Queue: 3 jobs
Job 1
Amino acid sequence: MSIKEAAHAVMKKAVQVAPDKWMPGATPDPLIRQKHGLIGTPVSRLDGPQKVSGTARFAAEFPLERMVYAALNYSTIAKGRIRELHTAEAAAAPGVVLVMTHLNAPRMTRVPLFGSNAKAAGGDDLPIMQDERIHWNGEPIAVVLAESQEQADYAKSLIRVAYEAEPSVTTFEVAKASSEQGVFQGEPLLLEIGDAEAALAAAPHKVDVVYRTPRHNHNPIELHGATVAWDGDELIVHDASQCVTHTAWSLAQVFDIEEEQVHVTSPYVGGGFGSKTLWQYQVLAAAASRLAGRPVRIVLSREGVYRIVGGRTLTEQRVAIGAQADGRFDALIQTGVVGMGRHNNMPEPFMLPAKSAYKSGTFRLQVEAARMDMVGNTFMRAPGEAVGTFALESALDELAVNLGMDPIELRIRNEPDKDPTSGVPFSSRHIVEAYVAGAERFGWNQRNPKPGARREGEWLVGLGCATATYPYYRMPGGVARITLTNRGRATVSIAAHEMGMGTATTQTMVTADRLGLALQCVTVEYGDSHLPGVVLAGGSQQTASIGAAVTAAHDALITELLKLAGKESVLSGLDSEDVIGRDGYLCDIHKPDRRESYVSLMARIGREQITVEGTAPPPLEFTHWSMHSHGAMFCEARVSGVTGETRVTRFLGSFDCGRILNPKTAASQFRGGIVMGLGLALMEETQFDERKGRIMNPSLAEYHVPVQMDVPEIDLIWTDIPDPHAPMGAHGVGEIGITGVGAAVANAVYNATGTRVRDLPITLDKML
Amino acid sequence: MNNFTYVRATDVAEAVRQGGQAHAKFLGGGTNLVDLMRETLERPSVLVDVTGLSSAITDREDGGMLIGAAAKNTAVAEHRGVRTRYPLLARAILAGASGQIRNMATVGGNLLQRTRCTYFYDDDGSRCNKRGPGQGCDAIDGFNRIHAILGASSSCVATHPSDMCVALAMLDAVVHVTGSQGERTIAFADLHLLPGNHPEVETSLSPGELITAVELPALSFAQRSTYRKVRDRASYAFALVSVAAAMEVDDGVVKGVRVALGGVAAKPWRALRLEAALTGRPANEESFRAAAEAELADAQPLRHNAFKIEVAKRTIVAVLAELAGDRL
Ligand SMILES: Cc1cc2nc3c(=O)[nH]c(=O)nc-3n(C[C@H](O)[C@H](O)[C@H](O)COP(=O)(O)OP(=O)(O)OC[C@H]3O[C@@H](n4cnc5c(N)ncnc54)[C@H](O)[C@@H]3O)c2cc1C
Ligand code: SF4
């Protein structure tokens, strides 16, 4: 969905809406400054015991009566038609209940493509098993349902297919020849300020180089899976999802039923990272279930995830910086091409960080997309920023070498005082503080700027740093319901998601503080499309989105309570703005002794419970301010002078992400992002065989992600300075951790060896 | 995975009888075979579980050791005698796979694990002469970073992935087998075959022949031995190149040297040329490098694996220098 578009749309309607807490001139959220309470204390995940005892029920663990198991068969050509399809042997295999192909699949509407509607969830909008056409190498061509998973898997191997291949574009070089302007969230990925090429040409110091990053595949440890059942025209989907409401609405379009007739639940998700949206598997399982008249469980194999769930696409980025001798930028250019599927719209927006990272006399930023016959590429942790910061921050390091200047000093000299391309002020930006604190703690002053100068045995040791950055987002659609009982307990209900980040825990803390209740007295209900709100767990926006919705619901609750409390109440005459919750009481914010407990109030008015709903105000804050999270990443890398193997031995992330709500879960997010960034830097690479457009390493044995021994102790610090313009003063922390890591590692490797790797991953063959 | 019959052999004779049936396969820890069955690359009709056969690790009178084929990889690596007398074998095993896999994997199964060539694994999507003789080989012009630089052919460029086998090749181990024709022994160097025109034939075992044990001969300088594995991440990755080496140095001169390379060929590669070139030469980096050059003189790079030649040479030099230690 286009965040900006949606924001503009609501903005038009918002003229008469009262300014909310985060707008200019408004009273700030009292929780931002609150010093006591749960916010800011390390609270362990409330779902921890369920997770470690195995009682948390994931999507593919819901047992249903008469359930059958699904297996998928995938195409082996990139484009063309199915000429022959022999399924009789499979259909006759033991335990088989149904073989579904394009010949017998029910007619279905295309899945609405993500971004085409506020609730669209599709990774692409291709017809699913509706005809004999093949659109990518790996597209599902048959579904087998059987009484056991093993029987389904075996039967699917008996299907014989003959294809008629047609010319396809599976080579990046060929696709690049006809690349098109990338459009992201409704806006062209193109920004020009001044004549950057001319400024570059005239600059006394410059770098002008090309960086490349490969495709990456999603590897959440929980495979994509769903348990699906029909009850008449009602569809129940237990899914592993980061967008339950979007999925419910989108499936309703596919099967031509009402949105309310689809019920998507997703209480636990074993990692999403942008991949747990709507792909063909849920649709095929629902279609096959309808055809067979039986509930269906589908779990993709690891290979299946690679074949039908898109990943991060490849990029080729030119970064050119022209600078004066004192380091000031005259020109900042980041342009290039990314691969993209034919039926999706995700031009990996690598230029986004450069829009607000540095001051420069001129800018030229552009992303072009080269359409290829491949599975629709999609969001993957910090889409754009993860690979964009690799190129930008490597180039900065190259320029620092060129200028003979410390790379941190170079960054500070180009620190903007307002957003350099939009001109609006920053809501909160303390990147320099983060650098200073990080450099001190990491021992940056020990670094010898001369590459190759430090050797320990056969190992060359180097230090590198890079800036991390990720925008603050909040999408429209946040709605929350609060139910307060006469025993002083509250339940917050919102269609949000817990994918292991700690959202449920953190929101329980925030709600408890907001209401002035103990942690045990608050329950957060989430992961169910029948709950209120349209809340995407993506773009690191969920915390803000829930926070804004809960704030609104809380206002509604106080207003309602004050109304019901009536004249006899000690609080009588106060406005909802003047009342806060504390220790189980509603208190006058100015005279906390003037108070009444929830229990007595409820008893007095004779109510068992009160339920209210609140809608988050439109996300206008980021049209007034340039809002971003920041970080300074520090890496120590060792490179073997014998084999070229690189090992990261120390890492520090120094973050500036507003107020940290729960240091424990936030640290896990930062650390997890950094670990994933080490994979991006050193090993992750999808082997896409351009001859056939086929992924050749669809397995965790051959597609490398970091293992325990690849990950050093990761040190984390943060500024903890609240952003007054964001709910609770907080920014999302899910994605920033991966940004900047690629460059920090590459820069450390350069400092260790003098070899500059511009082509990820940094494997040993590039170090010889 | 297809339907199959499962039998658990209680003695060698029974195993050989059961294993003689059409499409029978012996089952060790299953860490490779079961994977291949899941991918339907292997479709045995009978699985003969041989993990109940001898897993004993015993000393031999001639100073060597005998390891039952059912011994788990972990058990071998942890065995005190192995660790003191053949330290490189323990090291090689521990450099491979993960703790969980090594706990399941048997010595017999490790010897016969199959290549990690990704085109071999891609049953319906790629051509492979090993999987389907005569189909062609999609790796030769495809992704071949992990493929062979020595002993390959125009029909197959796959490598043997085992770490343990590199150590066994260096040690001149002897493989004890029993088939319907009775017992025999096979020199380790003769167990695995180079691809030639028949990459589908990977070993010199006759159909249905069971590996019962691996014998480690006595080697006077085996204690001064090591194993070094070069890989894409710090653990849990197959070798790009590995080197098993033992060396005896006397008065600055190489008296005896054994080297085997992993990750470079369809079999663990015994570096006989290197050994001949180095024996009697001064134990210094110059002669190590010259010997390594000699060994790799015939190496044939593919599009993505030329780096292996240089990495192999450098690793050989580093490992020999380490073994020479202060005698350098
Ligand atoms: C993710 C992953 C990573 C790995 N990484 C490494 C690594 O880094 N280094 C490494 O060396 N290995 C690695 N391995 C491979 C592992 O070492 C082998 O899978 C294992 O050694 C095989 O032993 P097994 O007993 O499980 O064999 P099985 O899978 O049971 O059998 C393998 C083959 O041997 C045959 N067989 C078994 N026993 C006998 C016998 N007694 N006589 C005749 N035939 C027999 C079987 O029929 C089958 O063909 C890895 C494996 C995996 C899955
Ligand atoms: S290298 Fe060998 S195993 Fe790999 S595809 Fe070619 S023939 Fe098959």
Job 2
Amino acid sequence: MSTIPPPPLSDQDVADLLKPKAFWEQQGVIKSLIIALLSTIVIFGGIAFTVGRSEGWGAVQQAFFSRPDMRAAFPKVWEGFQLNIKMFMIAEPLVLAFGLILALIRIGTNPVLFPVRAIAIAYIDLFRGAPALLVIMMLGFGMPGLRISWLPNDPVFWGITACVITSSAYTAETFRAGIESVHRSQRSAARSLGLSNRQTFQHVVLPQGIKAVIPPLISGFVSLQKETALVSTIGPLEATRRAQIYSALNFNYSSYVIAALLFIALTIPLARFTDYLLQRSAKRMQMGGLA
Amino acid sequence: MIALLRYESVYKAYGQNLVLRNINLDVQEHSVTCLIGASGCGKSTLLRCTNLLEEIQHGAIWLRDIDLANSQKQADDLRARVGMVFQSYNLFPHMNVLKNITLAPVKVKGERRSEAEDRARDLLQRFGLLDKALEYPDRLSGGQQQRIAIIRALAMQPEVLLLDEVTSALDPEMVGEVMDIIIELKNLNITMMLATHQMGFASQIADNVVFLDSGSIVEQGHPSQFFSNPQHERTRQFLERVTMAI
Ligand SMILES: Nc1ncnc2c1ncn2[C@@H]1O[C@H](COP(=O)(O)OP(=O)(O)O)[C@@H](O)[C@H]1O
Ligand SMILES: [Mg+2]
């Protein structure tokens, strides 16, 4: 049976095919949007309905989401939050620097430095596993407790120190993973041009290794921001501590919600930035292929 | 005439695996030497040893009057005098083309940046890649990346250029542009040693063809004799197999 093939598309039809389509004109977009919308209504509506209808909702709403309490607590919590930001801003550069130094020590192969390497490994194992809260309390209560005159006894100082100690152990492993992810052939290429071991590391391996782990490093920033809240256990009047004080005086938890919102507001931009970086590197992978 | 490169009873092992056995070979200045042989016969290893990326267990590799293999102290300086280009290009992905080319001249030779960049631009111009000077490697085709890698090695003005299967990772339509650059380098009298699977190219460009089998040199000679009248049974078998494959 012979069929006559349909005539080819006219130039105009081909041009139409190639015309860029608006987002909603693309195949299946409308359907997906409708399904997403419906499922959102069903799920969130269901939750709202169940929670709202529950017997205790009124009381919970009053305790956690009371507008007047939020407004009243805000100034003090905001003031406290600035201390969180300050602790974070001081701690983060130290974490990055110290984490990188630890990673470099760990990666090295010089036999003379073996003892230093052993210490670095022990340090990383110890503080990556230790809960930050415990380290904060041990330093914050323990160090001043030693009554050594030249040691500072400012709890903010010990809080920052504890955050730096725990985060840098974690960050060191992130850096190490990045550095080790750089392909061996990059090193060969650099050495073949006459670069020394050190130059190769400094100009070729390290920059690529760091670039590879920027997203997890930013996740580390977010954890560190939250860790500063734990410093409240040793006294400083940061946001959660302020919230706690308000809550104790007014028998209302809305102050905590305010503190939480402030932390969230700070982390969302970082999270979106990480997404953007990951997306960009995924695109590069597709384009670059081998590279 | 004293050879530019002279291999003297070179042995190389990876652990228990003897990869190069008693290599004796001269590479004359301004000549092109092609290494051929089956995959795994030791071509890359021989080149990597020449560039001091690998240590040998026995023997000597002379670059003029210096024994490359046994002068660990000046290894970095010596490495700079021998250029190498790899199958997988290995451009530095975090640097643009110009930076890729000028990194070593600036850091190793201590050239002024402006000077190194001028020379890099000259080289790019000569090989028709000047418009890529500020691109990053991931924006370039494989053929362009490999040509840049060759220019990067040339920018150090090496005394000999080692090329390890530099067209093997390329799509067929890009092989030509990289071969053209190699032919141009031959016309510029640059001493080259290249591992290749392309017999046609080897016979066109080589002054000396060296056939390796299981880490030993079985036979070498000028392509006119080597390809038309191979002396050894193993060479004949190998040539038959590769021509069958084409
Ligand atoms: N880094 C290495 N470690 C261990 N063995 C290797 C290494 N590189 C190559 N070899 C071995 O050495 C032999 C020669 O390899 P190679 O020089 O790459 O051959 P060719 O380039 O001719 O294909 C092979 O058997 C290979 O498995
Ligand atoms: Mg090889």
Job 3
Amino acid sequence: MSTENLHADVVIVGSGVCGALIGAQLAKAGKSVLILEAGPRVKRRDIVETYRDAPVKLSLANMKLQGAGSPFPSLPHAPSTYGDYLEQKGPVKYNTSYLRVVGGTTWHFGSALWRLLPSEFKLNSLYGRGRDWPIGYDDLEKYYGLAEMELGVSGTDDQDESGAGGSPSPARAAPYPMKQVPLTYMFRTLAEKLSAGGYNPVWEPHGRATRPYNQRPVCAGNNNCNPVCPIGAKYDGSMHCDIAENRGAVIMPNAVVYKLEDDDTGRIQALWFKRPDGSEHKVTAKVFVVAAHTIETPKLLLMSKTRHSPNGIANSSDMVGRNLMDTTGISVTMKTRDPVWPGQGPTELLVFNKREGDFRRNAAQYKIKVRNTTPVSQYAATLLEQGVLGTELDRRIQELSAHTLAWAVDFEVLPDPANRVTLSKTKFDALGLPVPSLYYDLNDYWHAGTELAMQDLNRFSQLLDAEITKKNMKFENRQHPSGTTIMGDNPRDSVVNRDCRAHDHPNLYIAGTSVMSASTCMNPTLTAAALSIRIAERIQREI
Amino acid sequence: MIPHSIVPTALSQVSRRRFLLGGLAFGSMGALASHGLTNTPKASDVTDFLILSEFLTGRKNLNFTLARRYYLGLRDQFPDLPDRITNLSNDIHASGTQTMDDYLSHGPTPDARSTATTIVSAWYLGVVGEDPKKKMIAYSDALMFQAVAGALVVPSYGAGPLAWGSRPEPYMTFKEAPDEH
Ligand SMILES: Cc1cc2nc3c(=O)[nH]c(=O)nc-3n(C[C@H](O)[C@H](O)[C@H](O)COP(=O)(O)OP(=O)(O)OC[C@H]3O[C@@H](n4cnc5c(N)ncnc54)[C@H](O)[C@@H]3O)c2cc1C
Ligand code: SF4
């Protein structure tokens, strides 16, 4: 063991958007901040180069190929989740793909940045399902606004984001920091035709710059938001890593935290991390923040079995790792009679939300989105496999590209303690740390939601004069994990309190989507970012 | 905007040999099989491959440097490539057809068709071979993108700041346009 003893006012585990936001804010307030990051630093131009040179290219349009195609590094001490890193134990595979690099998973996120609706904090009291959050929309509104400024969100003011076509909701104190991107031909056409059938198009708020924003250029329609924006127009966590470092925070890459230690008063005394060479190092601090992603955060807490916390840190409730949620979805492909041309501009924008209504007593709420990823390479490969050659090959590539619509639906998933992250008993990484073992299943509530969504999609196909050519009802992971350190007022059935502070440890905060009490059907990162800013404010007051 | 090719356009030698399509050009392929393989193919082998590729893809201006890389990449993965090319060339000659579409309706032999598909796949996808030996040769120059050029960008080569909105019009058009309106 190393004798080196590192100390900071605040030590943060994980340099993703949540950890980096907290680090940046506390460094600005003059605190000494150390951010430990399991993965290496990466450069945008190297990732873009690796992407362009790869024979198999990863994109949201070819999820099945993802094992082969990520341009991000996979190192023995920080293995990629593409491939067989995660251990799957449940009936439904939970194949999520987070990144371990400085900046975290948002390097390849789609950047949809939604606020939750007031009703989404009250699922149980309104509809008798799941749990209520201990806080409400009003508690978070200010922080949503700050998070939108920090992340640089472009959005459409004055629309009803619930999808019901009513007055603007949720209520906002300030407009979006940037205006919405221009509509593409496809988005305009689909919105017109589906509006005529009574549907309410909603324009997704997202993290692509539509005017120069901080260091970011304007989105240039590279259509490459996943796996990497070549020009950094789209927000990712590396941007707050840069800000944090410029303000004096220290980011230590290739530092894999494997243990937190508490004392008999419940205070966290220290944490331990390993270097790629296996050497072990200790860090002490006044306040500890774990922001290691919804799968790795509970893993770290469960690995930290101490004399005072024999079930793992923050786990007196036995809820650490449980209530694993996602916005697990289905997808439908349609062939339209008229050309629609998906693939211009950014990869997503138009959605149809069904977030509110009494149906939620019986069925999951959902969001229907249309993918706007250029799928040319998949179509060309498929046609060639079918032996199509000659002029017909060009004609069919063009036809498929212009006439194929890929719809995807994301559903709310209820918190269920049986769905959980545990430590693998048989599989370990190169540092000897157990890999996460996942158990996941979906209940009737989710299935009932899929039936409602299919009714909408069938209606879409009529309104668009399109034919449904493919359906996948098989539980597509939507990369929106939440719930594994669930927030609540009752220390017996939740891990953190309304301030994201561990019930069991006064100087331990947990940042990330893992604290969410309900998954909703929406992308979770803006909520996690808002909570992170709130955490930083709390810590700033304390030390 | 279409990304500029990073490789220079075909050698003048190619255009000279192009005149020979249907005669000599394919003829020299036959000799190749008996030469045994070397790592550096003769320029004429590559030129022949280029001319054959232009016939198979219906393109007139394929790039010599890329042809060389596809040829080497394919030969690496399919050691019998020269023989297969000879058989395909012979089949095309025997058919007496002048365009790929005519050749296809004439009916290639299964072997010839399979070789043609291998070569066309390489040019279209920019990739040679099968997993796990897949190799990337070209990205933005892959021919598949030409089918949608004008309408869609090659992912990661954007059209410019907020440069979209009008109805996409691909440069490539077809006699029987896909059923519009
Ligand atoms: C393909 C894809 C698309 C997505 N699209 C969207 C979207 O459009 N909208 C949206 O809201 N969300 C989206 N998400 C989800 C979003 O990326 C996450 O919600 C977000 O990254 C969470 O941020 P975080 O900081 O909590 O975790 P991360 O960004 O994952 O960062 C956590 C960091 O902690 C580090 N770490 C982990 N364990 C340790 C350890 N033991 N020691 C030290 N460091 C450690 C990791 O290496 C990582 O860098 C998407 C995700 C994926 C995969
Ligand atoms: S569309 Fe292109 S420029 Fe815009 S955010 Fe996505 S990758 Fe970046």
